Amino acid sequence: MIKKYVFFTSMVIYFSFSIVFTAFSDQPIVPVIFIHKGDSYYLRDSLWQAKQHNSRVILIGDVDKKYEGIEYHDMSPYLKEASYFKIIYQHIAENNYNYELFCFQRWFVLKEFMRVHNISRCFYADSDVMLYCNVTQEEKHFFQHDVVLLISSAGVYSGGISFWSLSVLEDFCFFLISYYENKENLTKWIKWFNGPRVKGTGVCDMTIFTEYARARKNLVIPNIREVVEGATFDHHINTDEGGIYKMVEVSGKRKIKEIKWDGCFPYGYNFSLKQLIRFKTLHFQGGSKDLMKNFRKSKDV
Fold it and tell me: I need a labelling partner for 146 at 20 to 30 A (CA). Which of 6, 9, 17, 210 fits?
């Protein structure tokens, strides 16, 4: 009787494992999507790096330049809602108008592209992000969630490195339009902007992501920068994230995270966890984009 019970239990465990394994092995490829205007010098680096680990890398842009292995789509067919948003957009920021506007418009472009091409889930990355992982494999940590965003230590939400389901992206775009159509929201932010505030701050897409997270209380949004199984997605390379990561001085007396390499994978020392942590991405925000070419790593290293 005991032998029969052990055999039965073993078979249940085996079939349960087989179901889980089959679910992941049959998982559709999650595409990596970049949205970029122009042909910036660093774009080739981010595209090349993403392709090292991912079979489907998509660039939605306005300059039809061929990059080996990259699936290019012109942006213009996906601008309908983005064009409407331009009409209702009010610029409440110190940054350039066109820059901030497009930071909002890209989410409408992404939503429409996913809808037209029947893409149910994707990984979105800013074009100054270097990617060192296979996002289809990484999604196993988040597959039960419809959106995964980067949340700073200050509680600010960002989509610059993010997983999206089409359904939540549609909901966010609806929220974004509704938010800007509400004059009370804009009046509140204009009053804040014209009052005492930290220099350089303003209303950007991260502001509305944070408002969205507060409004959708039942929507669980995991933080993509949490360390999971000894690895994380980098917030940005210019910050020690509150003294957590070891920094090093580079050219021009700039400081960035100190990176150690194990083959094609970057690591940084985490003082809080007292260990090296693997970075699945490195984000070269702001003036560090010129360093991206130095962080290319072939998967075959």
Answer: 17
CA pair distance 227, 53, nearest whole angstrom: 20
pLDDT value of residue 275:
96
- The confidence score (pLDDT) of residue 136 equals 97
Which two tokens mark 136?
Answer: 């289809």
What are the structural domains, with CATH classification, of the chain? Answer: 32-215 (3.90.550.10), 231-295 (no CATH)
CA distance 102 to 59: 16
Dihedral, CA atoms, 194, 198, 200, 201, nearest 10 degrees? Answer: -70
3-class secondary structure per residue, 63-125: CCCCCCCCEEEECHHHCHHHHHHHHHCCCCCCCCHHHHHHHHHHHHHHHHHHHHCCCCEEEEE
Banded pLDDT at 301 (limits 50, 70, 90):
low
Which residues make Cβ contacts (< 8 Å) with residue 97, sequence separation at least 6? 91
Amino acid at 105: Q
